[in-house]
């Protein structure tokens, strides 16, 4: 285990913080105007994160901006995976409130603080 993981992130249960709303994979496909197979490929290739909630794989709505995935999200997911985070831990990290951003890393990915989020994710690997 990596010592730089957020407190309480064990991967054994739902994150304590999280998105306000979720999209099912078919909803993601519709929003992105791609096939459901393409959504599964995006998840496999770490362009998008999906976790099971109530037995259904879901994607945080904030991570799918209009008809695209947040620009820096794939890079951040790769950096977190390289730092040893599993999907639940990545989700927790993305939605952990951070007054220095302000908000959460997931919210910051939609604005001018996206590169800062990427730098912080990269620092977790060291």
UniProtKB/TrEMBL annotation:
It comes from Micromonospora zhanjiangensis. Keywords: DNA-binding. The lineage of its organism: Bacteria, Bacillati, Actinomycetota, Actinomycetes, Micromonosporales. GO terms for molecular function: DNA binding. Residues 1-22 are annotated as: Disordered. This is Rv2175c family DNA-binding protein. Residues 71-125 form the Rv2175c C-terminal domain. Residues 21-62 form the DNA-binding protein Rv2175c wHTH domain. Pfam families: Rv2175c_C (PF18367), Rv2175c_wHTH (PF21531). It comes from the Bacteria.
């Amino acid at each position: 285990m990596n010592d730089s993981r957020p407190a309480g992130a064990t991967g054994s249960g739902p994150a304590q913080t999280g998105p306000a709303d979720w999209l099912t994979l078919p909803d993601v496909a519709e929003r992105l105007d791609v096939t459901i197979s393409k959504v599964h490929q995006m998840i496999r290739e770490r362009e998008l994160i999906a976790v099971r909630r109530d037995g259904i794989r879901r994607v945080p709505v904030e991570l799918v901006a209009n008809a695209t995935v947040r620009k820096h999200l794939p890079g951040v997911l790769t950096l977190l995976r390289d730092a040893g985070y599993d999907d639940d831990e990545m989700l927790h990290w993305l939605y952990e409130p951070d007054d220095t951003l302000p908000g959460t890393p997931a919210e910051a990915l939609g604005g001018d603080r996206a590169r800062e989020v990427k730098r912080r994710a990269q620092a977790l690997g060291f």
